[in-house]
Specification:
- 40% of the residues lie in helices and 12% in strands.
- It has 226 residues and is an alpha/beta fold.
- It has one domain (3-224): Uracil-DNA Glycosylase, subunit E, CATH 3.40.470.
- It has a six-stranded mixed sheet with strand order 1-3-2-4-6-5, sandwiched between helices.
- A hairpin with a 2-residue loop joins β5 and β6 (190-195).
- α1 runs antiparallel to α5 (128-144) and α4 (79-90) crosses α8.
- The longest helix is centred in the middle third of the chain and has 17 residues, at 128-144.
- The model has no long low-confidence stretch (mean pLDDT 97).
Amino acid sequence: MSDILGRIRDEVVDCRVCPRLVDWRERVAREKVARFADEEYWGRPVPGFGDPAAWLLILGLAPAAHGGNRTGRIFTGDRSGDFLFASLHRTGFANQPLSVARGDGLRLDGAYLTAVNRCAPPGNKPTPEERDRCLPYLEREIRAMTHLEVIVALGAFAWDGALRGLGALGHGVRPRPRFGHLAEARVGPHVLVGCFHPSQQNTFTGKLTESMLDNVFERARQLAGR
């Protein structure tokens, strides 16, 4: 991990700026759920993870209460992550198809995972104020990723967060691009690509299939000429 990304990671993990999110993430970690009753939850903000020399940034909404908030790694230990990492493995970004715990040997090649909000929010719905307090972390990550070319936004919230973060870095776009699956927008030096979120609501209903997700990451490679 680069020194800058490492410093951002340390600051994220120690953050206690949003009282509602601090209370929720820590309460979930204490009360747990039956299937994870014997596990020690992370219960803190979840930092980004991946290749510090990444050219692809994959952006989610926030950690899951019993996923990243339990394991301490983004998209790790929940069904959304299972779907996502299987695709990243198929498309050559991950060395294995499963992400179950920190220290499980998972490595990313050319990709870095992060989220707009770093704490698990009640109902998966951060407030606008909580979003805005967390966005500077994303802005700093983008600035630190000197090889970054493509950003894949998993869902409309991440698409909006990416546009806000890039706008704060001086890359505003008018008219504002609309989110859609495989929507594309040139934003400053980067290309933003939309993707339906790999939530169970989308994957169980067929709104997002394996081939649809693979197509997003294959398109990212095309855009970057890799």
